[in-house]
Amino acid sequence: MEPYDFLLIEAKKRNFCDIGVCGAEDFEFLRPIFEKTASILEGFIEKDIEKRIYPNITMPEAKSIIVVARRYGKKINAIDDEILRGYISLGAVEEDYHIHMMKDLEFLSTKLSEKYGGKYKAFVDTGPLCERELALRSGIGYKGKNHMIVTKNGGAEVFLGYIFTDLELPSAKSCKDMCSANCNRCLKACPTGAISSGDFSFEKCISFITQKKGLLTTDEMKVIGKNIYGCDVCQKVCSKNIVSNETIENIDDIKPSLEELLGLSNKDFNIKFKKTAIGWRGNKVIKRNALCVLGNIGEQGLGLLLEYVVAQDDMLRHTAIRSVININLPKGKILLKNLLEKEKNEEIRREILWDIGHQED
Fold it and tell me: Where are the chain's structural domains?
C-alpha cells in the first residue's frame, strides 16, 4: 500500500474529516501580510517571520506537509436558566483541541514511521506556519467569505493541524470555492463588521478581543456582548457545516456562571480550565471578560460588579468601573462618586470625573 493511501485510512480512524498533502515550498507571497499584522498578532503567532515563510527552517529535511481537519460542531441542548451567564465559543468547550489533536497527529506519525520510516514533526495551532494557507495548498478546503477555511467534509467548524515529513507524498489539487454568490450569512451575522468580502479586521473580531491581554477600550468591552472567550458566529451560520449527532447537555459547559468565574482562585481556575482551550489565556483575562459582560447585561449585573470596583488589581478594577459606567444608572453614578475619594489611579479618576460631569451637564 502506498504511504498516502495508508495515511488516509489511519487518519479517518482518528476522526479527521479532511486529510490533504502539500509540498514544503515557501510562502514568500505572504510576507507583506505577515509584516503588516505582526504587531497586532504579537503573542498569538510565531515571532520570526522567516519561520512562517520557510517550512525548511523548522524541518530542513521536509518534503511534504500533511494537513488535517477535525469537525467540532455540536448541537446545544442545554437549558437556559435565570443565572447570569456568559458564552464560551463551541471550539473551546471540553478538552483542549491542541491536546487531543496533537495526540492523534503523533499517533499518525508513529504509524507512518513504523511502516515507511521517515521523520515527522507535528503542530496544532502553535506551529510556525499559517494553518489556513496550508489547508488551501493541501486542497482540504477553501477560504470562505468569513476568511475562515471551509473544508469539504467538515464545513467551517473545524480544527486544523499539520505534520512535517521527509517522505515525498503526492500533493493535492486546490479545492474549488463552494460559497454561493448569493450567500452572505457570515458577513451579515458578524456582530462587529470584522469581516467583509475583501478584508478581515483582527482588531474588530470578538474572538481576538476576548483573547487580548490588558485593559480593553470601552468600545471593545461593549462589542464582545456576552462572550467570555471566543466567538463562532461567522462559522456557526455557514451552510456548509456538517450536522453532528454530538450534543452539549450541560449549560455550564457552554454558558458558565459569571459569579462562579469571578470567584475562581488561580488554583480553581486551573482545575476547571487547564485542560481546555481557555486555560492558556489565564484567570485574569477571563475575569476581565466576565466583568465586561456584566456591564453589557445591564442593571442585573451591577451587584456582581461591587466587589471589583475596589479590586486590588488595577486592570480588573478599571474594567469593573467602566462596566458600571456602561450600565449608566443613577445608583451606579452614586457608587462612582463614592469611589472617587479613595481612587488613586489617575486614569481611572479622570474617567469617573468625566462620567459624573457628563451626566450632570
Answer: 3-82+94-165, 257-360
Backbone φ, ψ for residue 27 (5° rounding): -120, 45
Euclidean distance between the first and the last CA atom of the chain, given in angstroms as a whole number: 80
Q: Which segments in the chain show pLDDT lower than 70?
A: 197-198, 358-361
Per DSSP, helices labelled H in 55-96 are 55-58
pTM for the model: 0.91
pLDDT at 197: 65
Distances (CA, A) of 40 to 212, 280, 306: 10, 19, 33
Instruction: Please report, as a single letter, which amino acid is at residue 67.
Output: V
> Quick one: cell of 300?
442585573
**DSSP secondary structure string, 16-61?**
-SEEEEEE----GGGHHHHHHHTTTTBTTB-S-HHHHH-HHHH-TT
Nearest to residue 26, comparing CAs of 52, 64, 60? 52
Residue 361, pLDDT score? 42
Asked if 199 is an active-site residue, the reply is: no
**18, 104, 125, 232: which one is catalytic?**
125
**Residue 188 CB-density burial (10 A; 0-12 exposed, 13-18 middle, 19+ buried):** exposed
pLDDT in tens, 118-165: 999 999 988 999 999 999 999 999 999 988 999 999 999 999 999 999
